[in-house]
C-alpha cells in the first residue's frame, strides 16, 4: 500500500519556518559535537519514529560525510555491536530516551543523562538535546503529512 503525501513540503509552504529551522540546524551543529554523532542521533530517532524520509536522507547524508555502511546498518542495534564509541553510545541512548518520552515515568533517567554528561560538556549536551528535538520535529511533520522517502535517487 502506497500512501500519498497529504501536502507537499511544509517548509516551502511556510518560508518563514525555513528560516527558524536553519537557525536550529546551525545552533546544533556549531557547539562542538562531532557531525558523525549528530548524524547517528538523527538516524536513530528517525528510525524509532518511522520517518522514512528522514531515515533515507539521514543515512545518505551520513554516508556522504564519510560514515561506513557497517555502522549505518547497525544503528538500530547499536547496543549489540562493537562499531560505536562510548560517546556515540551515550548520545544514542539519550536520543532514544528523549524520543520515547512517554515510555517511562522518568523520561530521561539520571543514568542516561549522566553517561552523556561524562562525554559531552554542557554546551554540547544542549546541542544534542536541540538536535534530538529538531529531528523529532521533522519526523512528526513528515509522518503527519506522509512525506515519503525519495524514489528516484540519481
UniProtKB/TrEMBL annotation:
Pfam families in UniProt: CMD
Start and end residues of each Carboxymuconolactone decarboxylase-like domain: 15-97
Alphabetized Gene3D superfamilies for the sequence: AhpD-like
SUPFAM superfamilies: AhpD-like
Protein name in the entry: Carboxymuconolactone decarboxylase family protein
Originating species: Micromonospora solifontis
Amino acid at each position: 500500500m502506497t500512501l500519498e503525501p497529504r501536502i507537499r513540503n511544509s517548509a516551502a509552504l511556510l518560508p518563514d519556518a525555513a528560516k527558524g529551522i536553519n537557525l536550529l540546524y546551525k545552533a546544533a551543529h556549531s557547539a562542538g559535537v562531532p557531525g558523525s554523532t549528530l548524524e547517528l542521533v538523527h538516524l536513530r530517532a528517525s528510525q524509532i519514529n518511522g520517518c522514512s524520509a528522514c531515515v533515507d536522507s539521514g543515512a545518505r547524508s551520513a554516508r556522504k560525510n564519510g560514515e561506513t555502511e557497517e555502522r549505518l546498518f547497525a544503528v538500530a542495534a547499536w547496543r549489540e555491536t562493537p562499531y560505536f564509541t562510548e560517546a556515540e553510545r551515550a548520545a544514542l541512548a539519550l536520543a532514544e530516551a528523549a524520543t520515547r518520552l512517554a515510555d517511562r515515568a522518568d523520561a530521561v533517567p539520571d543514568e542516561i543523562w549522566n553517561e552523556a554528561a561524562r562525554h559531552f560538556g554542557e554546551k554540547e549536551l544542549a546541542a544534542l538535546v536541540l538536535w534530538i528535538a529538531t529531528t523529532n520535529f521533522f519526523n512528526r511533520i513528515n509522518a503527519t503529512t506522509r512525506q515519503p522517502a525519495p524514489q528516484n535517487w540519481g
